[in-house]
Amino acid sequence: MIIHRFLAGQLARGWFIVFLVLTALFGLLALVDEIDNLSERYRLAHALHYVLLTTPQRVLELSPVIAALGTILAFATLTRNSELVVIRGAGFSLRQLLQICAVPTLAMMLALGFAGEFLVADMHQRAETERMVRRSGNLDLLDGQGLWSKSGNRFFNVRNLRAGHIPEQISLYEFGPDNELLRAIDARGAELVGEREWKLIDVQFKEWQDGRVSTRNLPSLELGPFWSAAELPALGQSLAAMSPRALYAYANHLEQSGADDGQVRMAFWQKAMLPFSFAAMVLLSVVIGVGFGTTRSAAFGWRVLSGAVIGVGFYLLTQIFHTGGQLLGLGQSVVVLIPICLVLLAAVVVARITRGPR
Q1: Coil, helix or strand for 267?
Q2: How does pLDDT run across 186-209, given as a tens digit for each residue?
Q3: Which of 143, 157, 268, 313 has the most CB within a 10 Å radius?
Q4: What does the pLDDT read at residue 128?
Q5: pLDDT at 4 over 80
């Protein structure tokens, strides 16, 4: 139907305009910050590449703001051109307009979920890794070969960091004075048990002596010194560079290890519920736009601006609530879900205040 396509196009246009503005703004701010870190190894081209790969993640986290501003912008445009009055006069109720807007909103929710899981997290991780290598000159991180560390005649290799922080597929090679291989250790995984001590798990221990090879399988083996707990995450992923699925796996790992998993679980719930936050902000903004959009008043522009401020301000308050909820000891899922429920409640209240034809 023509009205359906027209409204969907107006919403997509509003979202896209706000997306471009925020991308340019946050990209510029990130570039200014990176310029302060330029050096002989880390040049302007490297900084530009880093900003290009990490800005999508920053903007993705602001998708509820994009939803609020973009939707308000779309309905403000419809009102300015008297198109919303015509649509309402044709008999379209608020409920019908919400149903029409639900289709592009659902499409955006799916796009946000896909981007968060498969696109922006990987881009952010690759950018952080490249920046770390270039700024520090640390060439221990080799593409496709994992992490390498050398101590005397010992070479230590971690081929995989599951969820960005959990070491897996570990190998250690020790050579003699004449460069002959003395022992080789392969382990399925590892846990950090000290400052730089590692507890290897599911170990295969091979040792060469007098031309013979002896093999032992051990459930665990403590060795070191290797990377410390503070250094290992720097070689893996930050929480911002992890997908929801990786965050969930890492939180479970921390829980099984007896470590504090609260921050990681909060990051997981925030990312997992981001598409639903987007939808809730669209709902509130549509109700505001439709409710005030047909009001014949010279102050309509200020009302729309107030609606945009309410949408953005409410999103910022939810970020404060996330921190406050943790301090109060609330569950991470509850802390994230309550602001979404409050947005939905606010939409119901505004709809009743501005109730028109159904």
Answers
A1: helix
A2: 999 888 777 778 889 999 999 988
A3: 268
A4: 81
A5: yes
* Pick from 144, 140, 126: nearest CA to 242: 126
Task: Give the bridge partners for 198, in sequence order.
Answer: 192, 223
Task: Enter the DSSP assignment of 341.
Answer: H
Cα gap 113→93, rounded to integer Å = 30
The answer to whether residues 292 and 303 touch, using CB atoms and an 8 Å cutoff, is yes
Of the candidates 333, 196, 230, 347, the residue with the CA atom closest to the CA atom of residue 279: 347
CA angle 59, 260, 319 (to 5 degrees): 30
Token pair of 61 as six digits: 């986290």
Q: Give buried/exposed letters for 113-148 (b at 16+ CB in 10 A, else e).
A: bebbbeebbbbbbbbbbbbebbbeeeeeeeeeebbe
The 10s digit of each residue's pLDDT in 209-265 is 877 888 999 999 888 777 665 555 444 557 777 889 988 988 887 787 777 888 889
- Predicted confidence (pLDDT) per residue in 118-172, tens digit: 999 889 888 887 787 777 655 454 444 567 777 778 888 887 776 656 788 889 9
Strands 181-192, 141-142: pairing is unpaired
Residues in Cβ contact with 252 at an 8 Å cutoff, skipping those fewer than 6 apart:
261
Residue with tokens 């939409």: 347
The whole-number pLDDT of residue 31 equals 94
Instruction: Report the Cα 226 to chain-centroid distance in Å.
Output: 29
CB 278 within 8 A of CB 72: no
Q: pLDDT at position 136, please?
A: 61
User: What is residue 43's DSSP assignment?
Assistant: -
Task: Report d(CA 263, CA 240) in Å as an integer.
Answer: 12
CB-CB neighbours of 308 under 10 Å:
21
Q: Which two tokens stand for residue 28?
A: 């510029």
The pLDDT, as a whole number, for residue 119 is 93
Question: What is the C-alpha separation between 62 and 80, in angstroms, rounded?
Answer: 27
- Please tell me the predicted confidence (pLDDT) of residue 228: 64
Q: How far apart are CA 151 and CA 159, in angstroms?
A: 18
